[in-house]
Structure formats: C-alpha cells, structure tokens
Structures
1.
Amino acid sequence: MFPATPPKWVSRESEILAMRLILIYLDSDTDAAAIHMWALQDETGIDWIAFESARKSAQLAAEAWQRWGRVDDARRMLMERLGELMPA
C-alpha cells in the first residue's frame, strides 16, 4: 500500500513519473519498454542523468514485484494512485 501522503520531498510530478516508469516495466518487453522510455523522457524533458536514475529504480521495483508474483497487485495499486494524482 502507498502511504496516505508521500514524504514532503516527493513532488507530485516525481511520484507520477515513478509510477509510469514502473508500469512500463511491468507491461512491456525490452524493446517496447525502450521505446516507451524514450517517449516519456522526451515528454517530460528531464535531463538524461536524472531520468536514468529514475528508470533504474523503476526497473528494480518492477523486477521485485515480478519476482514476488504480484504484478497484478502492483499494477492495480499504481493505477489507483495515478487516478488519485491525475483525476479525469
């Protein structure tokens, strides 16, 4: 579960980026993930070093969820939280 409120040092944009990156890794093969990553970096305009750091963290998180066999749970929780942060 996600905390009710993220730590003060986590911006809304950072939280959204992290969740989008994890979802890319959960739902894509290597080639598709690379294309999605390139598009996301272009969309956000984040410099390469910061983006690489976020990307690697997301990859490790997704691998952990996969290893635990909880991909569907992770996807559901991430989508719920994204819905809270980005209402339609």
Note: The chain has a mean pLDDT of 87.
2.
Amino acid sequence: MTKSLREQTLKGQIPIHIAIIMDGNGRWAKEHSLPRVSGHKEGINSVREITRVCGEIGVKYLTLYTFSTENWNRPNAEVSALMKLLLKTINMEVKELHKNNVRFTTIGNLRQLPKS
C-alpha cells in the first residue's frame, strides 16, 4: 500500500476506486536474475495482496491495467506464458473471488485472448 493510501486509510478516507497500471514485473525479474515469467508470477502475488487489502478496507472498485496492446509485440514465448499464467490464475482464484463477492470483468479488445 502506498504511503498516501495508508495515510488516507488511517484517517478513514477510503477511496471508492483504485486503478493500478501493472508494470515492471519483467524488470523486477531481471534485477533478481530470474526469467521474466517469474516476475509476472510475483506480480500475481502482489495483485492477490492488493485485492485482499482493498476488500478489507472497503474499496468498492479496483481496476488493474494488466495487458496493453503493445504487449502483443513481445516474443511469442513470453506472450504464450502470460496467457497461460492468466488462465491458470483466474481458474485458481475464481472461488476465492466469488466467496468475497468480487466481480471480475474485462475491458478492452478480448478477441486475441484465449477462448477458455
């Protein structure tokens, strides 16, 4: 949680909507001498924690900008790994999301995403 959000929360000022641009997972992995996909996996852990905290403090809307159209220009192996990771994560988390009354929706052009 950022310092500003933490301060607002402590003052009882809970934002209604938080939007996060997910960026830097690949750079994080590189800095830790790990494959890029490891950075994306670590990003999932961050999203899980952010989602939990937002639910606990009463944030009504959380928007995650996760995959820009420019990402399709990455190497095929990386895009494929990201799509597999996306599907695996959604399948693993869907029960927990439902249990916590979290509604999952997508925004944008979905035509290139895996059908499943």
Note: The chain has one domain: 15-99.
3.
Amino acid sequence: MAAQKILYLFDPLCGWCYSVSDGISKLAQTADVKLVPTGLFCRDKIMSPDWAEHAWENDRRIAKLTGLPFSENYRQNILQQPTNFNSFALVQALTAVQTTEPAREPEALRAFQKARYEEGLDTAKLDVLADVLRQIGCQQAVGIL
C-alpha cells in the first residue's frame, strides 16, 4: 500500500504551526509529508507592542496545551523588541533546503523553530537562518541563500 500523501501548508512564524511540529514529524514517519511554507506573514511589519502581546497570549496557551517551550529569551529578544515580523527569509531558507536536501526540510524547520522559540534568535534574518543551517550541516542550502 502506498504511503498517504499530505501537503502541510504553514507559516514558519506561526506559533500554532510550531505547536504541531512534533505531530508533523511523527506523521512523516508513516506518510509522505510535503512541507509548503505559505508566507502568510511575508510582509515588512515591525513587531508592535499590541501584536507582541497578542502573540504572547497565544504562545502561553500553546505552551499550556502542548508543553512546548516559549523561552524568556524569545519574549525579550523577539516580542519585546521592534523586530521585523516577516517570514520571507524563512520561506527562502526552507526552499533552499527543499531544493538541495528535501528529506532534511522537516529537520530544518524544527531547527528554525527551536532557534526562535527556545533560543530567542531572530529567525526573520537570513544570516541567523544561514547559521542554523550550518549548525545542522545543510551547507548546500546555505550556498544558495
């Protein structure tokens, strides 16, 4: 029997998408899961205090429901700073991985999510994403960013 084919449409900056990351990884063990980063948040928008508060409320709810971490570093470095809330660089980096090492795209997504939500790194910046890709050994993807 052929494996189920599933298209997973998501935005890499979406906390609710982060909330299902473990489930998507498990699903990929038995189904053909194709990641499709949509770029819902692909626009130049500086993180406003109102948006940050909205995000943090959702993040706390996600943490309570899933047990996934949203660190204090994330809150201080991302939500409480005037960072650019734009997923274009993430979509670009994931596309680079899809082009060079498609089987590693879920790993790259998880590494980007960990960098943002757990380590508090600004994953809207291409240089940060390149560093994360280097850390997980996706050199070819870094080369085409």
Note: The CA atoms of residues 3 and 31 lie 5 Å apart.
